[in-house]
Design brief:
- It is a single chain.
- By secondary structure, the protein is an alpha+beta fold.
- Helix content is 47%, strand content 21%.
- It is built from 23 helices and 27 strands.
- The strands form six sheets. An eight-stranded mixed beta barrel has the order 19-20-22-23-24-25-26-27, surrounded by five helices.
- Helix 1 packs antiparallel against helix 6.
- The longest helix is centred in the N-terminal third of the chain and has 39 residues.
């Protein structure tokens, strides 16, 4: 019985130690995928790696080398959509480590990532595919982990799909670009596994050993190949016990009792240790590694339990979605480490300020969610949310720097807005969208009309995409005359949309929808291409096209403009790009570089709506515009208003002093026309000259304008007949 008990104890100990090693290795692999999240769920990374010519230096600085510096990934490889190696990185700048055998070993994990990404797209009623990750994967990367051999050394790896943070809609499902990051198992990683398992004598070996007292854990690659052995000095309590009692067999009765006690105590300790390890693994799976708050999965479970309890108690429960305003600017300007500190600080403050019974979770990068139980009234809830905003508004110290954060909040209340967790979260998200759309740094409570607006915008977005694909949009052109109204010197291209049923959709409606849905790039290029193509019908005139700030964010915007000019054989000097001062929001140097490139190539650049913003003068200092367009509000307010007239005169003089062409918009009366003419405003535009016209009516208008003669408008301020009301 003594020997049998010792053998059972040794086997139990070996099994427990083996399970500890297995759990520690898995936790280390899971932690690698979490460390990758900052670079694989990122709009900039998604667009750059999927570009026709990816920016290698950007990938090096912001992805592969950044992962090495911050998380110790000594090697990385980008695998493109066609399963070909797209980029190889090693901290020692050697590419020899990436072999075909290694790629073949990694391919099962990469294939699983690609398959999970593809299956995350669900077909919508419109025939498009919506990115809807399963099992709440939107807040974390789609990744596979494992171990491979690199030049004979075992490496832990994490293979993750590079995806945008914002859920997207696409016409077809295509595989993702996959980032595989590797960290050597030797050294720090092996030490971490040793510390987690609390075992001694940790070494990495190439082959199995038959020595007794040595525990061995086989590492295998995704292809099932032997990568190496983790060996350790096993603790065999049964054998050690027998060694001690051999000289004292005479005291068998006493020693048997001691053995029973020792085995019982040891088993309990091992059970406790294993239970603690399992508890830590469960906690890691349910909580955010950075902030320590519950993650999306845990939050959903807690919300479900809370709603069931509140239904039984007959109380109200509020679900609050939170989004940090302009958090990306912090990451871009100060780095991810500063952004991580802001996330931690915000999480702690949210936890402090809400009632003790409330729940705070981190849903994704800069998104949080709260559950506030037993809401007594909307007023009481508003008071709590006021405290939240005040608390977050206090400065956050990052080193010696003060940062100020603000947040937008959307709230849904059960049972008023429903009792289903998913439905409440969806409605809170709709309310958050409303808060952000109305200026950010505010809160919104869900209202039924918000859902209707979202559905209406979604429907309009799909119709706009279809109209754009089918070339169902049109352009109108509004002429601009010279100072004496002797000739038309320029036309401004304006988008127009009339549906097949005759419904006219105002640009003030579909342009914002295009901005929000990401269609603005396609729409802007369509307008630019059509305007440049028609410019040949009106030789000698400049064609002005408005460009959205979002278009400048496209990394190849300038190249696309040049391609359109080349395709239409239009000299750059005949194209004028109109931008508003909002294009400079965030002081993005890439926007200034793009504008300078266009200007250096001969394209004219105009600052539209000058005077509508408080910082307009600073933009004139930062960039030498060709044209200054006076905001129409100044023109409409000038009639009999000496202050408005003085401002107009000052702007005209300022533009002339800076060598710019000055354009006045919104001219509707003869008095406005004569005033601007008297002060020698270079170009005049408005209904007094002509309404926006389609291309046929514009040609007729130009012929009529020339037929009136070179004298321009006569003494009675008569003007050519407007043959069409575009």
């Amino acid at each position: 019985m003594l020997y049998w008990s010792a053998r059972i104890s040794d086997e139990s100990a070996k099994h427990s130690q083996h399970m500890l090693i297995k759990g520690a290795v898995q936790l280390s692999q899971d932690y690698l995928s979490k460390q990758q999240t900052g670079v694989v769920i990122w709009e900039d990374a998604y667009h750059i790696v999927n570009a026709a010519e990816p920016d290698e230096s950007w990938i090096y600085a912001n992805m592969t080398h950044w992962l090495f510096q911050n998380h110790g990934f000594t090697k990385s490889v980008l695998i493109g959509r066609d399963f070909q190696v797209q980029n190889i990185y090693a901290y020692n700048h050697s590419n020899r480590w990436m072999t075909q055998d290694l790629l073949d070993d990694l391919s099962p994990a990469v294939a699983k990532v690609r398959a999970r990404y593809i299956t995350s797209f669900q077909r919508t009623p419109s025939g498009l595919f919506r990115y809807t990750p399963k099992n709440h994967e939107a807040q974390r990367s789609i990744a596979e982990t494992g171990v491979v051999s690199v030049n004979g050394d075992p490496y832990l790896f994490s293979a993750a799909a590079i995806v945008p943070r914002v859920l997207s809609i696409t016409q077809e499902r295509v595989p993702p670009v996959t980032l595989v990051s590797l960290a050597p198992l030797r050294g720090g990683k092996l030490k971490d596994i040793s510390e987690m398992s609390h075992l001694d004598g940790f070494v990495l070996a190439d082959t199995q050993s038959d020595r007794s007292g040595v525990g061995q854990y086989q590492l295998r690659s995704p292809r099932g190949k032997n990568v190496g052995i983790i060996a350790w000095q096993t603790y065999l309590p049964g054998s050690q016990m027998l060694d001690r009692i051999h000289p004292f067999l005479a005291f068998a009765a006493f020693m048997i009792a001691a053995v029973v006690i020792a085995v019982t105590v040891f088993t309990r300790q091992m059970t406790k240790r294993l239970a603690k390890s399992e508890s830590q693994a469960v906690h890691t799976a349910r909580h955010d590694a950075l902030s320590g708050l519950p993650n999306r999965t845990r939050f959903h479970a807690l919300l479900n339990d809370t709603l069931e309890q509140s239904f039984e108690d007959g109380t109200n429960t509020a679900v609050v979605y939170i989004d940090l305003d302009h958090f990306k600017d912090i990451n871009d300007t100060l780095g991810h480490s500063a952004g991580d500190k802001v996330i931690v600080a915000v999480g702690q403050r949210l936890r402090r300020v809400i009632p003790e019974s409330g729940i705070v979770a981190r849903i994704s990068g800069d998104e949080f969610a709260m559950v506030i139980k037993d809401c007594k009234s909307d007023e009481w809830l508003e008071y709590i949310l006021d405290q939240v905003q005040d608390e977050i508004g206090r400065p956050i110290m990052i080193g010696q720097r003060e940062l100020f954060a603000s947040l937008s909040m959307g709230t849904a209340i059960a049972p008023r807005d429903g009792n289903d967790p998913d439905e409440l979260l969806r409605k809170a998200d709709i309310a958050l969208y409303d808060a952000k759309a109305n200026g950010r740094s505010r809160r919104s409570f869900f209202e039924p009309n918000m859902e209707q607006q979202v559905q209406s915008k979604d429907k309009l977005s799909r119709e706009l995409r279809r109209a754009l694909n089918n070339d169902e949009l049109d352009l109108a052109y509004q002429p601009q005359s010279d100072t004496d109204a002797r000739q038309i010197v320029s036309v401004e291209a304006l988008a127009r949309w009339t549906k097949a049923d005759g419904t006219i959709v105002s640009p003030s409606v579909f342009i914002p929808v295009a901005e929000e849905s990401g269609l603005i790039n396609d729409l802007g290029l369509w307008i630019l291409n059509k305007a440049c193509a028609k410019a040949h019908d009106w030789p000698g005139m400049v064609v002005s096209v408005n460009v959205s700030p979002n278009q400048f964010k496209h990394p190849r915007f300038v190249e696309k403009v040049l391609a359109i000019l080349s395709a239409n054989n239009l000299p750059p000097q005949r194209l004028e790009i109109e931008v508003t001062e909002s294009v400079f929001a965030g002081r993005n140097d890439s926007v200034l570089k793009a504008l300078r490139r266009l200007k250096n190539l001969g394209v004219k650049v105009a600052l539209d709506d000058f005077g509508s913003g408080y910082s307009s003068l600073s933009y004139l200092r930062r960039f030498p515009f060709d044209t200054l367009k006076i905001d129409r509000d100044f023109v409409s307010d000038m009639n009999g208003n000496p202050e408005a007239e003085a401002i107009l005169v000052s702007i005209i003089q300022l533009g002339k002093a800076l060598g710019m062409t000055v354009v006045a918009e919104g001219i509707e009366t003869v008095e406005q026309f004569r005033f601007l003419q008297a002060h020698e405003c270079h170009r005049l535009q408005g209904f007094f000259i002509s309404r926006p016209l389609n291309e046929n009516d514009l040609s007729t208008f130009l012929d009529t304008f020339q037929c009136v003669g070179t004298a321009g408008f006569d003494a009675k301020a008569g003007y050519p007949p407007r043959l069409a009301k575009g």
